[in-house]
Amino acid sequence: MKVLVTERIAKEGIEILKNEGIEVDEKIGLTHEEICNIIGEYDALIVRSSTKVNEEMIKCGKNLKVIARAGVGIDNVDVESATKHGIIVVNAPDGNIMAAAELTIGLIFSIFRYIPQAYMSCKQGDFRRNKFKGVELYEKTAGIIGFGKIGALVAERLKACGMRVIAYDPYVSDEKFKKYGVEKVDFDTLLKESDLITIHTPKTKETYNLISEKEFKKMKKGVRIVNCARGGVINENDLYNAIKEGIVAAAALDVLEKEPNFELEKQDYYNPLLELDNVVITPHLGASTQEAQVNVAVSVAREVAAVLKGGIAKNAVNLPAFEKERLEEIMPYLELAEAMGKIFIQAERTFANKIEIVYSGQIDEKTTTWLTRALLKGYLEFSVQDTVNYVNSQLLAKEQGIEVIESKKEESGKFKNMITARFTTSEKVLELSGTVYNNEGRIIDFFGYKVDFKPEKYMLLIQNIDKPGMIGKIGTIVGEYGINIATMQVSRNKKGEKAVMVCEVDGALPDEAVEKLKNTDGILRVTMAKL
User: Where is the ACT domain (predicted)?
Assistant: First the structure.
């Protein structure tokens, strides 16, 4: 067994692999072409963030069984291509959570007490302390956007400073807020009441530009903002303007939407925020501690060793360890189950306190275990900050306070096998059902409406009044934005009442188009879902 390591990782990780009898080649600084030329010899590949593991490289890795990213994100790995080739992708989702939380706290103190500015002033021989009159955290209100693992760690530390801590996260249970003594509030309340806003969400379609001009106008004058999560969650141009207008007193950013090269001493990089003295910018240091680097190296080394020795990777991002023949049979069911979770959470955008999954037909028990995890993975990917995978999805669901019930029955009606998922929220119970035929997953019941469609990458989910002309209105608006409708499913239960439409479209509709659809007479709800 051979492992190729193309970027520097802590020696502790290398030693774990060698102690398992695995041959390790550390070849740092190879070009993409050089890796493609040699990767066919290796059973595993370990990278950090610089190596771009694309489809070409994956195809060249004819013996690859596992690709490991020594870090949290997997932006530089083509997970879809790896999945198609039966290669497990793993990462280290918990290795740097303490490092990220502590950096957040450090930046908060920095912008409340102007520590970096005071330091630079002293370095330049100017010791006038009256220039740096700060503000205390004590008895101020801290607003946390995203109450996952890092958000919770930050909350504990801010409460120790005597702060009132409020948080916004619609996908977290009330029990978790109570556990940490944090007030659960809506987004607008957080914006209006916070003296400090700190962000701990992933970057998704929902969170991109989450804070822009409209949100800044709702904030307290003098608010301070920290972002150690992902660039793009804050609109940087609007942040610049809010600082110049005096709405935001100070900001600290460890992440930027467009980031510089972190390896070059000097480069041509410009960001207007660098001009502002009350903005602290750090070069994406969230994981840059000795402990975090050891943690991620040890974590991925153990994952790689487990896979190569026939075990299960605890942090598999894409798929469980099935034999290749079984994987081809099971994959359509895994994709269907995951799509069902994604469809529900995007269509409803609300917390489900109970998820019941009923398997009908000939699906065996080992398979149902993974299908449940796949469905929870799809649901949680859009609702928690943590990296979600097939192995940890059940644990994360439990942490969120979700009751998961799985059952099996032999009868499946006219279908060989069927999956039914029942989502219970605080207001209602909604049900999705799906099956597999011709080796592809199909949704056959959409919240009580009989349908038959294959979950696709881009789908418009629409609820409307059943009356003439609705299809034409929708088609016209979608066409105005140059998006083609590939397929359309229409279903109703009773003439003249509510109906549903599921449209497969060739691309994501812009927010403007979605809003136009929502404001169209007869349309009750519109969701632009992306799988």
Answer: 459-531
Query: Cα separation of 404 and 394, whole Å?
Result: 8
Least confident of 186-190, 386-390, 469-473, 502-506: 386-390
**Catalytic, out of 284, 302, 373, 442:** 284
Residues 299, 399 within the same domain: no
- Asked whether residue 350 falls in the same domain as residue 499, the answer is yes
Give the residue numbers spanning the domain of 66: 2-93+291-309
User: Model confidence at 424, in pLDDT bands (50, 70, 90)?
Assistant: very high
Rounded-to-integer distance, Cα 124 and Cα 126, Å: 6
Sequence-distant (≥ 6) Cβ neighbours of residue 224 within 8 angstroms = 108, 111, 112, 135, 195, 196, 197, 248, 249, 250, 251, 252
pLDDT in tens, 56-66: 999 999 999 99
Q: Is the pLDDT of residue 319 over 80?
A: no
Q: Examine the residue annotation and report whether 275 is marked as an active-site residue of this protein.
A: no
Question: Tokens in use for 229?
Answer: 């999560």
**What is the three-class DSSP state of 11?**
helix
Q: Choosing from 259, 323, 329, 480, which is the catalytic residue?
A: 259
Q: How many CB atoms lie within 10 A of CB 404?
A: 17
pLDDT tens readout for residues 459-484: 999 999 999 999 999 999 999 999 99
Question: What would the 3-class secondary structure string for 194-211 be?
Answer: CCEEEECCCCCCCCCCCE
Count of the separate structural domains present in the chain: 3
Given 69, 200, 230, 373, the catalytic residue: 230
pLDDT in tens, 269-287: 999 999 999 999 999 999 8
Look up 129 and say whether it is catalytic. no
259 is catalytic: yes
Q: Give strand pairing partners of 464.
A: 499, 523
Q: Look at residue 317 and tell me if it is in a domain.
A: no
